[in-house]
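Obj.: predict assembly geometry.
Materials: sequence records (below).
Method: joint structure prediction, all chains together.
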Amino acid sequence: MTQPFLSIRKLRKAFGAFTAVHDVTLDIPKGEFLTFLGPSGSGKSTTLYAIAGFQDPTSGNVLLQGKSLLSVPSHKRNIGMVFQRYTLFPHLSVAENVAFPLRVRRRPDSEIKRKVADMLSLVRLESFAERLPAALSGGQQQRVALARALAYDPPILLMDEPLSALDKKLREEIQAEIRRIHRETGVTILYVTHDQEEALHLSDRIALFRDGRIEQIGTGEDLYLRPATDFVAGFIGNSNFLAAEHLATVDGASTIRLADGSLVSGIHANGSFASGQRARLMIRPEAFHLERSPNTVELAVEIVDVAFYGERRRIVARTGTGQEIDIRPTSAALAAQDVTPSHRAVFFDPGTAFLFPA
Amino acid sequence: MLLDYDRLGWLKVALLGFTALVAAFLLLPVVFIVLLSFGSSRWLAFPPPGWTLKWYEELFADPSWIEAALTSARIATMTAILAVAIGLLASFALVRAQFRGREILRGLLLTPMVLPVVVFAIAIYAFFLKLGLGGTTIGFVVAHTVLALPFAIIPIATALEGFDKSVEDAAIVCGASPIQAKLRITLPSIRIGIFSAAIFSFLASWDEVVVAIFMASPTLQTLPVKIWGSLRSDLTPVIAAASSLLVALTLALMVVTALLRRKLQT
Amino acid sequence: MSVEAQQGIATPRIPAGLGGLLPALILIGLFFVVPVLALLLRSVTDPAPGLQNYAALLGDGTYARVFFNTFLVAAVVTIVTVLVAFPVAWMLAIMPPALASIMFGIIILSMWTNLLTRTYAWMVLLQRTGVINRALVSAGIIDQPLPLINNLTGVTIGMVYIMLPFMILPLVGTLRAIDPMTLRAAALCGASPLAAFRRILLPLSLPGIAAGGLMVFVMSLGYFVTPALLGGTSNMMLAEMIAQMIQSLLNWGLGSAAAFILLIVTMSLYALQLRLVGSKRSTGAA
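Observations (raw structure tokens):
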């Protein structure tokens, strides 16, 4: 039986009475880009640190190619890591920083020279070889850190929120760099972030963490289109939640009554519901339309505010029962219209909405 | 991992043990002296054959010791006042005024702290001999003030640097004259610095040995000079008694400083 | 009433500009710079004009001995102090705050305790019949008491004791400024604890060690009290020799010259430190 490349088994980490990581189990195939996504304190960094060896788990195991990592001290684990604060060696030049892991492994000088040159061209910083870290910008320092982490061809690369210290434009540039490097080297990457857009942009799969557990794991599409819980729905992408009463479910399609009394059918049911049970209806802002079309149902709203966001408009509207919802229609026809505060109807396809327990 | 306390493993035990040893090394000699001052052996045998207060009695019965202590106190107090006054004025100029060579001047004023005291001691001794100030209280105070000045300037200047001048300016706008603003607003705000300056200047003079040896005369002896003389001739336990009292004074001052600091900061 | 008026000093107000420097400048100028310059003058005019005093000091064997002893002791004290201070500073930089406060308290208490008291303690401890020798003899480690006092050994021990706080405290600052993540990164890069220490921790602490070491060296060169009390008359150090020349021998020419040599060496080393560290940090806070 082929064993998974990297396997985390029932990992648990407790700090006294507080349990940061409850029972994380997952398998990662070779070459995958997996992101640990979640709010602060959800246990994603703690899990990463256990793999790196900065913290000993309370129980559970981490296996790389079948062998447990836990008994191996950090400096023998042969794992690459990139940190939030770059963490370059301030007294060494860029070239010496990248050469460092090879020097402590006592590789011959000729090999070191060649590898450093390869790495620096991989991150496109060849001309910076002799500079000191203090003379580099944040983005450049992070690329050096990446070169250093990959210099010894580690089987896995850990990245702990490496881009959160950078501004948006720079972040997007380096995200592209990371994707390119992942394609070119095929290294297995475990990436930690709290930014869901970043996760969607970079990853093959995303593990969404909540309170020390993985709430859902899957591709970005899986999490976006088929969220398992309202937490996932709320975390990935934007969402609106409306109060609803579940009436009946037939073949996975639910009929509900909204707060204003209207009935809607054909909703995805996430979970089983009793008749009359209180529930929450989740509709993405992008799922709303301003014109009726077949399959859509109507929702009467009062438009409160309209903002121009570049590629789309953001409309804040209020339902009949006073709840505020976020509408970001993508229809091309919108460009021609001027949407002013008024009472009107908006439309959505019930098949794109989800029902969750209240 | 070398800077992670919980990840050091055996290294943590080794380092902690070593640190404890050094702590003992630093502490024990002082504790030892205090214990010896209560021991009955004239030859400072340890452990002492018995316990006694007679060395303290001898200390307090000897007028020359009391005299020396009072002399030290007098000179140290005058030094502290003078050093703080001069230091206060100098600090304002050093921190506020913009002029070239400010760093050089600051360095110059702090030089007495850095130079070997013996060089200053013989220089000032020779100078005062010519001026006829050798062996006088004034000479003592002046010489000590030179040495104490850096200890006054540093805490006051630091406090002044941390003080937001716009508060003082606001007082002037409210109608206070520059001097009033400084007296009523600035000085109270930096009182921790002034207090530290006073304590450090006092101690700088109170503990000062080398200059005192040169400046002393048979009629003008500070406490350190008296102890020095005793140490050169005979290691009587009375010195241990005097030293213990000095340690007690140090402890008291440290406690008072810490308490006042906490009180003044809130 | 202004502060100065209370002390009866002539200046009637607190000047906002340079005027405030005047009293300090007068004090330092008149009672520091002038006397020291006068000393220099004396060294080349007493007993007769010329550089004979310097020639005598630098040429004569007995004086050379003193200079050598002084440099030797200062060097040994510096090295020992650095070696002892580093592990302690390391611990203090990463220890839990509760434990660290206790250690800091002990260090500061030691620093504030009267110099004579501390030196006296070692005079008693290092005697032939003192505690240390008696303990070593009764433990069977030695047969005869070791001569630990009235020689350079005693001076070194005493000086290390005095200098330790001056080395430990700045070094803690240096070590605290190093980001622990850097060491974790080094470990992950494959550096064993020894390699990480040698290649990362030590180089990053070196500026602090150099600054502190230089300060201890300079202080040890010119120290008077402890070497005078713990050292013997046959292997005197520089400060004591200067004092003896002035007080006992009344040889002002020679004494001034020796003092001036000490002054020049001190100033040069201090200037070196300024270049290394920057003026604010080298004088530090009281």
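Conclusions so far: Chain A touches chain B through two residues (CB under 8 Å).
To do: check interface contacts against the pulldown list.
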